[in-house]
Amino acid sequence: MTILSLRAGRLAVDLAPAAGGSIARFAIETADGAFDLLRPADGAAMACYPLVPYSNRIANGRLVVGGEEIILKANWPGQRHPMHGDGWARPWQVARQGPGSAELVYEHDGQDGWPFRYRAGQVFRLDEDRLAVAMTIENLESRPVPAGLGLHPFFSRDADTELACRVEGVWRADADVLPIDRVTVPPEWSFAHSRPVDDVILDNCFDGWDGRATIRWPRRGLGLTLEATEPFRHLVIYVPKGRPHFCVEPVSHANGAVARALLPAGAALAGEIAFRPFML
């Protein structure tokens, strides 16, 4: 597998274009050695991958567009509901590469998986103080079709790792992690003030996100701010039990709601997500 390596100051990023246009590693050099801010790739399990043209699950693969019902095939091991789109499972092309940046492109023909044609792009820029990922999706159809964007990073997790973010509401989910209803964020799920992620088990979509989240690894003396522009105003927080990682995923639409996010013919949806490490 070909790896594109970007380096700037204490930061290092490895990209895997053929493995879903994913980040294979994002690390920072500290006085104690390199620390992986994201879980390093292990086989097919990447550190971070793009969510195009939709995030999370589509119940039973049923999509209704302009009164037409479309049934999508399952696309994820062990899941009967299609999940996370096409980008994570397809090779991306390297459109441009430099010492501190790279542009990856994926064009979908609508023949396998998602039934609509689109072009997706990611531009990675690594500076001495941050990694920025600019994402785009362009509708190649001659009519409005559903389209969304998201990023799925797996953050390294210690027993004392903390998260802080401000949101307005959350979707409760059923046993298949499908949304049931939207409620005000209960206190036990609130990260309005920094708190350990080990306090909860979550796999839920939040809305009304202000575009900023802060992660801290206190015993390592490190932190990271995650900042996102429009249209990323939903946040999926996934905290599995007993795993060495957790996810804070900026996305453009609520779980299962991509059919209500129509992109006009020839139009593009775009936004940027930045990871900025800092010392505590």
What do you see in this structure?
- This protein is mostly beta strands and 280 residues long.
- The protein has a single domain, classed as Beta-galactosidase, Chain A, domain 5 (Distorted Sandwich).
- Helices cover 0% and strands 50% of the residues.
- The chain has no helices and 24 strands.
- The strands form five sheets. A nine-stranded antiparallel beta sheet has the order 8-9-10-11-24-20-19-14-17, with no helix packed on it. The chain has a seven-stranded antiparallel beta sheet with strand order 5-13-22-21-18-15-16, with no helix packed on it. Strands 1-2-3-4 form a four-stranded antiparallel beta sheet, with no helix packed on it.
- A hairpin with a 5-residue loop joins strand 2 (11-16) and strand 3.
- The two termini are 36 Å apart.
- 41% of the residues are buried.
- Please state the second-level CATH architecture: Distorted Sandwich
Uncertain ranges: none
- Strand tally: 24
How many separate domains? 1
**Bulk shape:** globular
How big is the Rg?
Answer: 18 Å
Reading the helices and strands in chain order gives EEEEEEEEEEEEEEEEEEEEEEEE
Instruction: Give the distance, in angstroms, between the N- and C-terminal Cα atoms.
Output: 36 Å
Strand order of the largest sheet: 8-9-10-11-24-20-19-14-17
